[in-house]
Design a protein that fits this description.
This protein is an all-alpha fold and 229 residues long. It has five helices and no strands.
Length: 229
Amino acid sequence: MHGNFKRFSVIAGFALLLLILIGNGLVTRRQVGEQIASEERLADSRHMMLELENTESLLKDVETSQRGFLYTGDPRYLAPYERANAEIEGHFARLMHLTAGDAHEQDLIVQLHALEQVKISEMEQTIAMYRDGKADDARALVLSNYGLLTMEHFRHLIDQLELHESAQETARNAQYHETVRQTITSIYLASLLATVGLVTLAYFILREMSMRVSMPARFGSAKSGSALR
């Protein structure tokens, strides 16, 4: 009976260690998955900031292109405008993709896109006026409050988006470091428990082996003493 209990204790000990290792593997896998997700969200924040910078830069190029063309008549100044027309829609599509799930940011991007369309429309209008011989009227439109307010509103929305995304990046960075800390803690804790369990089982097994070796020796000594008497 006592022997059966010892065998059960050893088996139970190994089973417990196995459960600890399996549990740790599952927890670690979940934590690593969260780390990867946090890292991807961080990368999205950085891409978002880059896209905002590129979009703002393109619209500034459009404004510079517009002024250069209207004051010189040189069609070479229209190259940045043509490049912006070809690229800017792709930037807005990426911005919408990167902010999927964030209604506030997507609303700001929709407003930003509308202002970009206004600026492009103004650019087309002034170019048409210049080519129709109304250069002074085209320049007056560029220098009016209408164009200035459009760009100011555009920059204000960019600032709002960058501020919001910066706060998001800070929160995501903190979340990423927290998942790393939890993963390391989980690994260390499971390793400690497994080490303690293995040492305990090894001690128990070695003690049992030592007792089994010494018991026949004692029994033999006792029999020899009886025979001599």
